[in-house]
Every structure is written in C-alpha cells, then in structure tokens.
Amino acid sequence: MKILNHLAAQYDFNKGIFMEVDFSKLVKECRIGKNKAKDYLDLLVKKGRIESRSDGYRVY
Fold first, then answer.
1. Residue extents of the structural domains in the chain
2. What is the pLDDT of residues 24-57, one digit of tens each?
3. Residue bearing the bigger pLDDT, 48 or 20
4. b vs e for 42-53, b when ≥16 Cβ sit within 10 Å of the residue's Cβ?
5. Residue 10 class from Cβ within 10 Å (0-12 exposed, 13-18 middle, 19+ buried)?
6. To 10 degrees, the CA torsion angle through 37, 18, 44, 5?
7. Which of 4, 41, 1 is CA-nearest to residue 21?
8. Alpha-carbon gap, residue 52 to 30, rounded angstroms
9. Is the pLDDT confidence value at 12 over 50?
C-alpha cells in the first residue's frame, strides 16, 4: 500500500502526469525490494505514463 501512496503523491491529477518518479527513493521510502519496485515501474512504462532509460525512470 505504501507504494501506491508514494506514487499517488508523485502524480499531478490536474495535468494527468507524474511529476517525478525516482526508483531509489521509491525503494527506500516504501521499504520494498528492488524487483517489486521495478515491476510497478514497468507497469507504468507499459501504460505509457513514464519511460525507462538506462540511467533510471523519468516522467513521460
């Protein structure tokens, strides 16, 4: 549930976009494993909300 709260806090509901998605911050603040965080972020990539780069994830 923490990951959903964290991602919701990073989402701008007026514009319909994520303001910031930081992988390391997500893992640290939500206290989840890197694989679990990657699964959630990969889902957001598939939905077209963010894009993945070699240096991390960024707002799409």
1. 2-49
2. 888 888 898 888 888 988 898 898 888 777 666 5
3. 48
4. eebeeeebbeee
5. middle
6. 50
7. 41
8. 20
9. yes
How long is the chain?
60
Q: What count of other Cβ atoms lies within 10 Å of the Cβ of residue 11?
A: 16
Has residue 9 got a pLDDT over 80? Answer: yes
- Residues 6-14 have a mean pLDDT of 87
Residue 18 backbone phi and psi in degrees, to 5: -85, 135
